[in-house]
# Entry
Amino acid sequence: MASNVISRDLITVIAQELSCAVDRSVEYWMAQLDEVLADTRLTTLGRLNSVAAIVARYKHFTGKSQLRSRPVDDRT
# Structure
């Protein structure tokens, strides 16, 4: 019984750590986008190019060549 409790506790801790890591990662990329979009020194085209550069960096760091979007039914 004690090993089951330890296992559940370990799984909970791992899940919490993963959740925190995902949250930090999403916040990092969103902060970059927010900074570019709020930069009043950039033109509209400059903002678009900066956002495209951020997406390109994300793809490079993750090794993804394409990003999947959610199905249309799931969008809120």
Summary: Residues 24-66 form one domain. The chain has a mean pLDDT of 90.
